[in-house]
Amino acid sequence: MATKQLTERYSRLAETVESRLGSRLTRLTGSPGELSYVVGAGSLLECCRELRDDEALKFEMLMDLCGVDYFSYGRDEWVTESATATGYSRGVVQSAGQADEAPDMAAAAYEPQARFAVVYHLLSITHNHRLRLKVFCEDDASPILDSVTGIWASVDWYEREAFDLFGILFRGHPDLRRLLTDYGFIGHPFRKDFPLIGNVEMRYDPEKGRVVYEPVSIEPRTLVPKVIRDDARYESGLKDGGDA
Q1: What is the mean pLDDT of each successive set of 10 residues along the chain, which is 244 residues long?
Q2: Rounded CA gap, 146 and 87, in Å?
């Protein structure tokens, strides 16, 4: 199925990648028209070096790196009439003809190997092709991977961003500090168990003449999704321009 979804050019690239790296990677089939692989954490550095240095591949540039938290992946938060229980597609009604373009989510439910993963987006300037790597962190409590700053210097701030927002550590990073959050910030705001309202709020105190931090005063609540309901409000005859 994955081969049919790729163009002829990317099918040839897939053959080259798999002949060079072999059993160290596994192709993902859920990205139509895109070439994506899962690589084991222990093989990350050697695979990245081969992808960069092999003359037939030449992925000289790392375009982006992002963290992923699968903590709530596949869980239902609301009961809706036509929602799927897999992934992040809950509450989405599949349109006519869409089933022919993409596999059914329920039939091809994705099973993450661990809670945290890091995704690497690579570009070959020489050959003008792209590749995506996904690496799962083996320890959910202390997610850590080897830093690839020695292979692609551009990853420096991307790894710091993933550390700041997801709490993923990168072994060997030259300067792993927070990048986007405030000084003294506690927690990692892109983790799925981090409260949407945060933990603290700030305000200016005129009596103290400075900014003060206090426990957040907003009460937590569950956001209500957009749900398509079968009732009179959605009758076609009641819409503007329809026959009443």
Answers
A1: 69 94 89 87 97 97 97 67 49 44 47 94 96 96 97 97 98 96 88 87 92 86 59 63 52
A2: 28
**Token pair recorded at residue 179:** 């990048």
- Of 42, 12, 22, 45, nearest to 120 by C-alpha is 45
Residues 6+ apart with CB under 8 A from 113: 38, 136
Q: Would you state the pLDDT for residue 98?
A: 43
Query: Which pLDDT score, from 0 to 100, does residue 2 have?
Result: 41
Q: Is residue 37 part of a domain?
A: yes
Could you tell me the two tokens for 226? Answer: 């957009």
What is the Cα–Cα distance from 103 to 201, expressed in whole angstroms? Answer: 44
List, in order, residues 6 or more apart from 8 with CB less than 8 Å away: none
Number of domains in the chain: 1
Q: Does residue 171 form part of some domain?
A: yes
The answer to whether 38 and 135 have CB atoms below 8 angstroms apart is yes
Instruction: State the Rg of the chain over Cα.
Output: 23
Is the C-alpha dihedral spanning 14, 16, 19, 20 positive or negative?
Answer: negative
CATH at residue 167: 3.30.460.80
CA 75 to chain centre: 16
In a domain, 104, yes or no: no
Q: How many CA atoms does the CB half-sphere of 35 hold within 13 Å?
A: 20
Q: Whole domain around residue 167: which residue ranges?
A: 2-73+110-179
